[in-house]
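Reopening this one. Same input as before:
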Amino acid sequence: MKKKLEELTDEVLNELEDSGYSKLTRDNFRYFWNGMIRYFESQNIYEFNPEIASEYFEIRCSKTESKKRSKSFIKRAILILDHYNKYGEIPLRCYIPVTKLNNLQYIEILNGYGKHLIDGEYSLRTIEGYLSNVTGFMQFLEGNEYLCIDKWSIEIMFKYIETLSEFKKATIKHKTGSVRLFLRYLYLENITKEDLSQYIGTVRGTFHQKLPSFWSKNEVNQLLAAIDQNNPNEKRDYAMILLVARLGLRSSDVKKLKLENLHWKENQIVIVQSKTGEPLTLPLLRDVGWAIIDYVQNARPKVDNPHVFLRHLPPYTELSERNHLYKTIEKYMIRAKLPISAKKRNGMHSLRHSLATTLMKENIPLSNISDILGHTSVDSTSIYLNVDINRLRYCALEVNNLEVSQDGKF
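Same output, byte for byte:
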């Protein structure tokens, strides 16, 4: 049995309190939701409905000269209710605006596709990427008044592809890939009569041929020295950066690291990598271990959460998948007076690159470096040869020493 809107808002407010939201924030949500309840009742509607909520959003924003911040708050208040009503949990963040699509059938289909992706256990970041690209596709359909799914055709698919011509090749690949999966889903769910995904071609090739950014040992040490280890937030940042700089963990795996992954007796970190799904065991180095202990004992919020690294503001949950920690690194770079260049990547991943390059300079075999980084193929690791000039020279063949036979073969 569906909850009445008033019951739903009361339940969500209790969840917000349990999650550590302040009384002021809860009061602001309560004030807005009470107004929305009155609007719903004036329409003789007593359960949450995202379309009616969107109407109320438009009315609220048109009556007053709402500031951008106020509009964002109203939008988030609606999306929190929508998300909780569907999934029974408070979302950490809300990214998709409620007014991007107007066609009610399209909104319903998009919601169904989002649930399909969640059931498929895709990561939050992947789901958001797919939904964002598919929303763009459906906005194109709305804008050109292709509002009847039964009349979608190969010509419409080609017209959509033409709109992507100004994007970079990698962006086109991501957008068309998302739309192709979506169209395949529609066909398998009998929403469309024809499998239109066959008309969305694939973009072949790889697009990460840039040389990896590289930090010297001195630069890494400067960065670490700039972190105030007496500050609770910076205790966390110090431990996280050490995990990447010393062990080469991906930032996604650092954010997902759980207390159970730390095997103190064996001095090991044992995880299943979020990117590859493959297990990885790394040594728990002394300085890394002490940094984690210092954070957990002296700075980590005292809440029941299995993750090692948490937000330090309510709700005290694990760090968002969308937080790539770029601004974190940049803050300490500025403090350490390290140069920031638009031509050089300075995020967490660049520290991982630096570890690989350092290991290569110390003549560690490529296969061992691949194991440390958790690559599924040595080919992924071989890109670091591009920054190791000495190793390239060693690998190069001297043409003068080669004997060529009369038929042109070596």
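So the earlier flakiness isn't reproducible anymore. For the record, DSSP finds 17 helices and three strands in the chain.
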